[in-house]
Amino acid sequence: MAHLDPHGSAEPRGWDRPDASAPALPWPEPEIEPGPWRRGAAVAPETYAEAPEHPLAYADAAGGGPASPNGHHDRPDDSEYATAQFAPVRDVEPESEPAPPPGRRQRGRRRAGLDRPPTQQPVPSRAGRNLPAAIAVGVGLGALIVVPLFFYRSAFLVVVAGAVGIGIWEMTRAVRRSGAHPPLVPLAAGGVLTVGLAWFAGPDALSLGLLVTVLGTMVWRLGDGPGGFQRDLTAATLIAVYVPFLGGFAALLAAVPQDGHLRVLVTLAAVVLSDTGGYAAGVNFGKHPMAPSVSPKKSWEGFAGSVAAAALGSALLLWLLLDVAPWWGALFGVALSVAAVLGDLAESMIKRDLGVKDMSNLLPGHGGLMDRLDSILFALPTAYLLLAVFVPVLE
Questions:
Q1: Angle at 358 between CA 124 and CA 166, to 5 degrees
Q2: Cα(395)–Cα(386) distance, rounded to whole angstroms?
Q3: Which of 26, 51, 70, 355 is 20 to 30 A off residue 279, Cα-Cα?
């Protein structure tokens, strides 16, 4: 069937009619698409068969298209056209994540069945600790202290010096978050020296060790230039006072020839009783926060439990071990409980200021060693002074 002239002529003409009297069509242009589109060229009638209803009905040259009754494809070979280089458009599904290989499960999951219940995630205690791990580590630390204290007291000096060295490392590492860089080497060497001087020469040597540590740190830091000198020296002085100086009182307690091991034992027992009583009372009865801006988990009910447990336990222990009247033993327990709570709050304030939760992850269920020494460090000088009054040292 002949088509109407697109330029408005009423006379029909076919595609194979010579174009002597017809104006040139604006498309296709011969220099772009030569070949059968050139005017006057003979074109097979079946080449211009009716187009399919959907332009995507044809497949590409590799896949083939719908076949005609004689077995040939109705689409002509258009490999010579300029558009043949573009990939055909298909309706495809959007790419999704590749399915995991059969027989393998995603990481962190396992299949549950009748013979295999789903994995139960460990539920932390109300105090935020892994309680079994905390108990196991606490028992191990207690054995590390008590065994050398009673069987070879000189080895206890090594335990104290090692604890002081680890504490200095944790504190130095933590304060670097604030931009301060106190030198670790002179602090650690001075801390060990401070403990040794306290053990062999008494309280005056303890103060001398602190002075030597601060001066040595100052001289060492001068080698790094004036930039940040005051900030670094302030941080180093805080660490020197907080860890080796307070920790040196453990050496002073243990160095008493007659009953040094018992003095250390009643001091540690009072701190443990205070922590245990505060934990039990706080978990079960804690409702009124004690210092929410510093340590949200501490409550006044827990503090009352700490004081009560330490007072009762110390009254009994000092009476049995050191022959101290029970009321003086109770006073000893109350004082050490208050000092232990203050030490815990002081370290919580330091950690909050530095933006850290724990000083390190050295001890499972406890955090770092300083997270266990915080209450002990404040209790040691308190115990040393009170025991010097209650149980004077015989020369």
A1: 125
A2: 18
A3: 355
